[in-house]
């Protein structure tokens, strides 16, 4: 007999004390769940934040034989903050997050790393799956940008794929490098220098 069983036997199964303790325990469990969610969620965007991302990455090799990673960097956040105010900058980040929420689910996991950086991790996928996710994401972002809200969300993105004995760090690095290259291309197309 374990400690809990001994305690219940001592109190009696029909005891009001047992009912009270069960309710209190359920309340504490719910409280700790909410606390953990707040710790893991980015409060501005509602996406899982960097704490959840780091624990996810630490377990990635155990979860996935193949992986697709998409790094994103929201363009023009400084412009929005400096010229339209921080509220507009927050709206820009929220629109970026919404575009990622629209593609997430199942084996597709999106996170806000902080600032204007986001990542999507696709587990047990093919390279074609990554391409399909990118198409769906771009189409969804275009729909969000069609709103007449004064917030046009431009995002640089880079992808990478890992299979068999992939190194998580290497796949992350490649996706990050490709995202930066995309940012340089997008800035050059607008006649701007990358920062």
Report what the structure shows:
The protein is an alpha+beta fold and 195 residues long. 57% of the residues lie in helices and 15% in strands. The chain contains eight helices and four strands; from the N terminus they run ααααβααββαβα. The chain has helices spanning 3-11, 16-40, 50-58, 60-63, 77-84, 86-101, 127-145, 168-189, and strands at residues 67-74, 108-114, 117-123, 155-162. The protein has a four-stranded antiparallel β-sheet, sandwiched between helices. A hairpin with a 2-residue loop joins strand 2 and strand 3. Helix 5 (77-84) runs antiparallel to helix 6 (86-101) and helix 6 (86-101) crosses helix 7 (127-145). The longest helix is centred in the N-terminal third of the chain and has 25 residues, at 16-40. It is extended, with a radius of gyration of 22 Å. It starts with a helix and ends in a 6-residue tail after the last helix. The model has no long low-confidence stretch (mean pLDDT 87).
What's the gist of this structure?
This protein has 195 residues and is an alpha+beta fold. The protein is built from 8 helices and 4 strands; from the N terminus they run H-H-H-H-E-H-H-E-E-H-E-H. The longest helix has 25 residues, at 16-40.
Keywords:
195 residues; 15% strand; single chain; 8 helices; alpha+beta; 4 strands; four-stranded antiparallel beta sheet
């Amino acid at each position: 007999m374990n400690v809990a069983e001994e305690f219940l036997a001592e109190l009696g199964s029909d005891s009001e004390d047992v009912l009270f303790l069960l309710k209190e325990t359920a309340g504490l469990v719910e409280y700790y769940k909410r606390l953990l969610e707040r710790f893991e969620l980015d409060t501005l965007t509602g996406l899982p934040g960097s704490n959840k991302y780091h624990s996810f990455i630490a377990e990635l090799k155990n979860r996935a034989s193949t992986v697709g990673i998409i790094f994103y960097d929201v363009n023009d956040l400084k412009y929005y903050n400096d010229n339209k105010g921080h509220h507009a900058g927050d709206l820009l980040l929220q629109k970026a997050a919404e575009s990622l929420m629209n593609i997430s689910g199942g084996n597709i996991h999106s996170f806000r790393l902080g600032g204007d950086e986001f990542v999507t991790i696709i587990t047990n996928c093919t390279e074609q799956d990554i391409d399909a996710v990118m198409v769906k994401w771009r189409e969804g972002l275009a729909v969000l940008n069609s709103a007449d809200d004064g917030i046009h969300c431009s995002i640089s993105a880079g992808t990478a794929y890992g299979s068999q004995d992939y190194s998580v760090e290497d796949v992350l690095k490649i996706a990050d490098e490709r995202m930066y290259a995309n940012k340089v291309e997008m800035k050059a197309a607008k006649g701007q220098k990358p920062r």
